[in-house]
Amino acid sequence: MTKKRIAVIGAGVSGLSSIKCCLDEDLEPVCFERTDDIGGLWRFQENPEEGRASIYKSVVINTSKEMMCFSDFLIPDDYPNFMHNSQILEYFRMYAKEFDLLKYIRFKTTVCSVKKQPDFSTSGQWEVVTESEGEKEVNVFDGVMVCTGHHTNAHLPLGSFPGIEKFKGQYLHSREYKNPESFTGKRVLIIGIGNSGGDLAVEISHTAKQVFISTRRGAWILSRVGDYGYPLDVSSLSRFQHFLTKICSQSLVNTYLENKMNQRFDHELYGLKPKHRAKDIALTK
């Protein structure tokens, strides 16, 4: 019986694991990667590439290695709990080598279109048009796995900032940020208190004259590291913790979490206390 062919779009972490899963299920994967290397989001480059997510040089992942590793390929013991982006990429390279995944990837190949075959209702097949070195190719697949990520396109709503056209300073999206040196001696405003906003405010503060954070509603700030030095995502996702949330009221759980976070620093004192409760939304730093 002929193996079913599966198109995998993107060779980042999702793409690599999708290739591996296809092989485990005796399918025939063909991965299309528009750049010349694997890694997707986690492959740092000084200049952002169009159509690919971009990170800054200092990025450290928020997820501990115990929680993020592949179940069939553990992260080396000597790697830190929270890895720098270069270590994450190296881990993905080891994963790809361990399971011989690179031979299933067509690099420098862009997927132009994906559409159902005319007989899709009976065949379930897809027509995939790709382009490599100026030449287009059409292939038919039994399935398509889209692994292109969701941090690719920057959202910079300049229309929401009246007078921006008269602003004489520099403005940019965090996607374009790479290091703090260009902000030396300057007054910098960070708009937004998500993970990137928090990271950039801290890092730029080491070189800038002054840094401000603008946030619409504040945020509850969690540490990556929990009690006794354990990674927070490990210690807080136990069966016991889950049991407590089931038997305690939502209000009691919120009060407990907020008290724990205020032990690190008083959110109200620092102007960060939001109106929403801790279980509604939290920022891990």
SS element count, helices: 8
Estimate what percentage of residues fall within beta strands: 15-25%
Helix and strand element order: EHEHHEEHEEEEHEEHHHE
Domains, number:
2
Distance between the termini: 51 Å
Cα-atom radius of gyration: 23 Å
CATH architecture of the largest domain: 3-Layer(bba) Sandwich
Task: Report the count of strand segments.
Answer: 11
Fourth-level CATH superfamily of the largest domain: FAD/NAD(P)-binding domain
Q: Approximately how much helix is present in the residues? A: 25-40%
Shape, per Cα inertia axes: globular
Strand order of the largest sheet: 3-2-1-7
* Unreliable segments of 5+ consecutive residues: none
> What is the makeup of the main sheet?
4 strands, parallel
Q: CATH top level of the largest domain? A: Alpha Beta
Break the fold down into its secondary structure elements and pairings.
Blueprint lengths: L4 E5 L3 H12 L3 E5 L32 H4 L16 H14 L6 E2 L3 E7 L3 H4 L2 E7 L2 E7 L1 E4 L40 E5 L3 H10 L5 E5 L6 E2 L9 H4 L3 H9 L2 H15 L18 E2 L1
Parallel strand pairs: 1-2, 1-7, 2-3, 8-9, 10-11
Antiparallel strand pairs: 4-5, 5-6
Overview of the structural elements:
The chain folds into two domains: 5-146, FAD/NAD(P)-binding domain, CATH 3.50.50; 158-264, 3-Layer(bba) Sandwich (FAD/NAD(P)-binding domain). 25% of the residues lie in helices and 18% in strands. It contains eight helices and eleven strands. It has helices at residues 13-24, 65-68, 85-98, 120-123, 195-204, 232-235, 239-247, 250-264; strands at 5-9, 28-32, 105-106, 110-116, 126-132, 135-141, 143-146, 187-191, 210-214, 221-222, 283-284. The strands form four sheets. Strands 3-2-1-7 form a four-stranded parallel β-sheet, covered by helices on one side. The chain has a three-stranded antiparallel β-sheet with strand order 4-5-6, with no helix packed on it. The longest helix is centred in the last third of the chain and has 15 residues, at 250-264. The radius of gyration is 23 Å and the shape is globular. The protein starts with a strand and ends with a strand. The mean pLDDT is 93. GO terms for molecular function: flavin adenine dinucleotide binding; hypotaurine monooxygenase activity; N,N-dimethylaniline monooxygenase activity; NAD(P)H oxidase H2O2-forming activity; NADP binding; trimethylamine monooxygenase activity. This is Flavin-containing monooxygenase. It comes from Equus caballus. Its cofactor is FAD.
